[in-house]
Amino acid sequence: MTNNRLRFIAYGIIIILFSTIQCKKYNDDFGKSENYILTENRISNDCTLFQMRFSEGDYLLKYSLSGSCKSLKEEVYLRNYSNYLDLDYEHLKDKSGYIILDHYEIADIKAFQNQIIQITEKRFGSSVSLFENSKNSFTLKLSSSVINDH
């Protein structure tokens, strides 16, 4: 009988120790700030642009749309993207890494991507290339090499 009680107490102590360690791990992460700052720009009744500016990791920015954005023209998207880079340039991490851009249907996606690349290269002054491409999104890679305008 005493042996069973000792075994029960030992198991209880192990469970309490394990629970305490797990709670400590959870509490260490609790209250930490997010890895990004989220801003938004409502450009029409049915369309909002969201910008997630990352503070850590390889990604600098995610530029996304929300809503149906039926009347969104490419020029408006490009102008807003360019304005965002101009306004928040100093806040963008270390100016090398990845930028994810989400979009809806665009007639000439290659021309659109080239315009985005040109805007990004001009603003960052570094080499920009298309890293990944999918149906409604593409990723740019900003390298640390500087573009020479001779």
Residue fraction in strands: 25-35%
Terminal residue distance: 90 Å
By helix and strand content, what is the structural category? alpha+beta
Low-confidence segments, given as residue ranges, are none
Order of helices and strands: HEEEHEHEE
Envelope shape: elongated
Mean pLDDT: 83
Q: Tell me how many strands there are.
A: 6
Side by side, the strands of the main sheet go 1-2-3-4-6-5
* DSSP helix fraction: 25-40%
| Largest sheet geometry | 6 strands, mixed
Number of structural domains: 2
Put simply, the count of helices is 3
Radius of gyration: 24 Å
Write the layout of secondary structure elements.
Elements: H1 2-29, E1 36-44, E2 47-54, E3 59-67, H2 74-88, E4 97-102, H3 109-124, E5 126-134, E6 137-146
Parallel strand pairs: 3-4
Antiparallel strand pairs: 1-2, 2-3, 4-6, 5-6
Write a short abstract of this structure.
The chain is α+β, with helices and mostly antiparallel strands and 150 residues long. It has helices at residues 2-29, 74-88, 109-124; strands at 36-44, 47-54, 59-67, 97-102, 126-134, 137-146. The model has no long low-confidence stretch (mean pLDDT 83).
What key phrases describe this protein's structure?
six-stranded mixed sheet; 2 domains; 6 strands; 39% helix; alpha+beta; 150 residues; 3 helices
Kindly describe this structure.
This protein is 39% helix and 34% strand. The model has no long low-confidence stretch (mean pLDDT 83). It is α+β, with helices and mostly antiparallel strands and 150 residues long. The termini are far apart. The protein folds into two domains: 1-32; 36-146.
